[in-house]
Design brief:
This protein is α/β, with parallel strands linked by helices. It has a domain of about 220 residues: NAD(P)-binding Rossmann-like Domain (Rossmann fold). It has 9 helices and 13 strands. The strands form 4 sheets. A 7-stranded parallel β-sheet has the order 3-2-1-4-5-6-11, sandwiched between helices. Strands 7-10 form a two-stranded parallel sheet. It has a two-stranded parallel sheet with strand order 8-13. α3 links the parallel β4 and β5. The relative contact order is 0.14. The protein binds nicotinamide-adenine-dinucleotide.
């Protein structure tokens, strides 16, 4: 298949683009690395993709540029956007609106003629703190508590409208993804870098917040399954590990993998950060035949190996 992957220079997008090309698909990788909240990492991933057979890279800002490759696409995996609850406050609100909402609106409009399957990245943050007592189900009411979450609710509305107009768009609600190339603003990335430097771990809040932490390999498997599965247009599917872990316990796990005690430097909690995210995964199992396979210890071990490789001298580093 000819598959467009937007946000391909990003954390999840780079893994998805690689996996699709390894599976034999022709991949058109689209990104505007300068729009990334981690432009250096995005440029590095971008160069890695460009060097791979089977992947063509196209720089395009989806909020303003036309994307010719869509006319040929059998499927589009739309991962481009501005992620993150914390950075969406203040001036971040307009960036989230531009790179999430405007970019998605334009992308879906451009898909109206050929009508490829479009997989749109949404987020567990659309549930707010609703997952406190029980796992969040896809039909639960949405309760966005930050500009980022609100932008994803609007992205979901756009995808639903496109589905109503005949574009077979589906939504994947990702839950706290981690693993190699994780974004530098995310908790495990910051924790591991601090631990390797011997600094206190910068933890927001008291560590009682819990997350359905989901390894990127599992996210890739779910996303690739969504490209070819029979799915009702407009359906939303949780892509999250079924067992939430609180941040303190995750830090304990990190300490045991690293084999060193870790100090914590507490910071004020972030407004809009859910107390708990907890994925109900029955729909993913039923529609995609997917359930998360990677446990936290295994996943953290792999992510630590990536951070160590990134720090190794240039002649031995594996930074792809
Ligand atoms: N990582 C997670 O835990 C997580 C959880 C829930 C949802 N998501 C969603 O999944 C998607 C991918 O997340 P990620 O963690 O890989 O983020 P990322 O920031 O690493 O990747 C996003 C990419 O989109 C690109 N981009 C931004 N604006 C663009 C524009 N206007 N035109 C073209 N490209 C643009 C950026 O350059 C970046 O490379 C995002 O939509 C995010 O909101 C991620």
């Amino acid at each position: 298949m000819r598959i467009v992957v937007t946000g391909a220079a990003g954390f999840i997008g780079s893994h998805v683009a690689e996996a699709l090309s390894v599976a034999g698909h022709e991949v058109l990788a689209v990104d505007a690395p300068a729009r990334s909240l981690a432009p250096d990492a995005a440029r590095r991933a971008w160069a890695g993709l460009a060097a791979r057979p089977g992947i063509t890279t196209v720089e395009a800002d989806l909020a303003v540029d036309e994307l010719d490759g869509l006319a040929e696409a059998d499927a589009v995996v739309h991962l481009a956007g501005r992620p993150g609850v914390r950075s969406s406050w203040g001036p971040g609100r307009a960036i989230a609106a531009r790179d999430n909402v405007t970019a998605t609106r334009r992308l879906l409009q451009a898909c109206a003629r050929r009508r490829p399957r479009v997989i749109v990245a949404s987020s567990s943050s659309v549930y707010g703190s609703a997952g406190r007592q029980r796992p969040s189900r896809e039909d639960d009411p949405l309760a966005p508590a930050s500009p980022y979450a609100q932008s994803k609710v609007e992205v979901e509305r756009l995808a639903l409208r496109a589905a109503g107009d005949g574009v077979p768009a589906v939504l994947l609600r990702y839950f706290s993804v981690y693993g190699a190339r994780q974004r530098p603003d995310m908790a495990f990335h910051r924790f591991i870098e601090a631990a390797l430097d011997g600094r206190p771990l910068p933890m927001f809040g008291d560590g009682s917040r819990s997350r359905s932490f989901t390894h990127v390999d599992d996210v890739v498997t779910a996303t690739l399954a969504a490209v070819t599965a029979e799915l009702p247009p407009g359906v939303a599917i949780n892509v999250g590990h079924p067992e939430p872990v609180d941040v303190r316990s995750a830090i304990d796990r990190l300490a045991s993998v690293l084999g060193v005690p870790l100090r914590i430097g507490s910071r004020a909690p972030v407004a809009g950060d859910a107390a708990r995210t907890w994925a109900d995964t029955r729909r993913a199992r039923g529609l995609l035949g997917w359930t998360a396979a990677t446990g936290l210890t295994e996943g953290l071990t792999a992510q630590i190996a990536w951070h160590r490789a990134l720090r190794a001298p240039a002649d031995t580093a594996e930074v792809a």
